[in-house]
Amino acid sequence: MNRTIIININSIVFHIEEDAYEILRSYMIEIKKHFGKTPDSKEILEDIENRIAEMFTERIQTGRKEVINQQDVNEVIALMGRVSDFENDFVDELREEEGTVEPEQTRAGLDAEQEPAKESASTSEPNFTFTASKKLMRDMDDRIFGGVCSGLGHYFNLEAKWIRIIFVLFFLFGGSGVLLYVVLWAVMPQALSRSDKMAMRGEAANLQNFKKSFEEEMKGLSENFSGAGEHFNRGARTVGDILGRIFSIFGKILAIFFLIGFGCMLIGLFITFVFSTLNLLGFKNDIMLPPLEVMQPTEAFFALLAGFMAVGIPTFAVFYLLLRVVFKVQRMNNYLSMTLFATWIVSIVMILYFVVTTQQQFREESTISVEKPLDKSDSYVFNENDVRVIKASDEEFNSKKFNVNVKGEKLADFLRQDISIRFEMLDSLKAPYIQYNYSARGNTYQEASDRASRIAYQVKQDKNLVSFDSHFAMNQKDVYRDQNVRMVVYLPVGTRVSLSNSLIWKTRDIQADACRQDDKKTTEWIMTNKGLKCIWRMEEEKLKAEEEKLKAEAEKKQAELEQLQEEKEKAVEKLKEKIEKEAEKQTATATKA
């Protein structure tokens, strides 16, 4: 059993048998001797090693083996070729030009060392072959902008100029050429190494093609040096250079606009963070983020900080990237960038935590109902008692009034929206009453019930005048947890109701807008079997019904008159026919006589 050796090719570790390693080692020494004297020897040798590593990797993956043996090495050498192959070809070409030796005779004179390898390769080559297929890559040696057109030309066997003409036509007729070019630029990789360039042209990555590629590059380089002045003068006047400058200027202008926009976003985020923090500390202002209103002050600050980091760090990253593009600022320190990234991850986790915990505080709902009687009356006047202003003691606040914010609005205005009033019908013999329904949410049902029980709301009655508080009060230790008050007023059928305009928009299940009149401060209603109905609308409907009834009666009488007229006309027609028949009969009798 052969001993196994571990080797490293192109940073890839391979297990290879000792005899196979000796063959590979001799092969690499032969290559280094040949290419070692060239100016670009290091790059050529790296490309060759990369190709050998690729072929070994393909063999291991395809053959499902772990160790490279002698057969694998011989096959790879046969596919790559030996240095003596293209050296003999070069000698053959010289002799053919001199006419001294026939090509067939020269090619027949193989070295003894080559024969076994070629025989081995020929016998095993049908089992494993490498085909040279083209890859779609950008040609950076023949480019105007990004080498997209020249890369497409290699792939489709077309000259690059025709591809460029097609893109220009796309640009002129619709502008889609620019978008397509940018997409291809982003998708197509660059052909940087010799292996990439040969794959782009569909050439096999063997020694002969490596040498050919190197010679072509050296030839092109010498031509560029010899005609550098002429090429520069001609290239400076090309359309590509002009378009390149235009796109470069346009791109920088666009980047500057985005830079200003993201800079303003950063400033706005910082201002929002500062004023929201001051608001949490008790310095009231008009800047407050709605989600913070439903959180405890301590949690709200950390949630605000996490939100600022979650939005601010990506915004700063884009801003810094634009700075690098426009002003060539050096790259950010790796330690700082990793710290910012870790901070951003932590802020996202914190936001998720606060979202989940706050959402749990709204999980359960509880409603407490209380019924209170109303003094009986044939009519009631319902209005609103404005209690939205909280007045502090004279010593602390010098008799000044202040408001508290919630959800971006004043707390008083917000609590006012969570009060509704509904009117229901009672039997005329029963006494009227009001049902108070206090609702709130919490993490548990008991917590929600306790919070609902701490809601304070009053309705006062003075004879037939009933006053509803404009707002309800919460306990100082309670934060907003969807507290609301639902009032249900039960009135006997036939009871007249007068609703003030300030209260009417809180009512439910009635057509409030249809009953309002611009010149009146109240609306008049009456309780019916179908609920509360607007009086003047009922009168209007009654008048309309009477008008329709009279109209129907008039139409009925008109129809009767038309029917009598029609019957009269029919009787006249019959009489005429009878007279005509009598006349004809008398005429016939007279003629006969």
- Overall pLDDT: 76
Sheet with the most strands: spatial strand order: 12-13-5-15-17-18
Number of helices: 21
Indicate the overall shape.
flat
Q: What is the distance, rounded to the nearest whole angstrom, between the alpha carbons of the first and last residues?
A: 157 Å
Largest sheet: 6 strands, mixed
Structural class: alpha/beta
Any idea what the radius of gyration is? Answer: 48 Å
Low-pLDDT segments: 93-131, 225-237, 389-413
Strand content: 15-25%
Helix proportion: 55-70%
- Number of E-state strands: 18
Subcellular location: Cell membrane
InterPro entries: Phageshock_PspC_N, PspC, PspC-rel_TM, PspC-rel_ToastRack
Keywords: Cell membrane, Coiled coil, Membrane, Transmembrane, Transmembrane helix
Membrane topology: Single-pass membrane protein
In brief:
The protein has 593 residues and is α/β, with parallel strands linked by helices. The protein has 21 helices and 18 strands. The protein has a 6-stranded mixed beta sheet. Strands 4-11-14-10-16 form a 5-stranded mixed beta sheet.
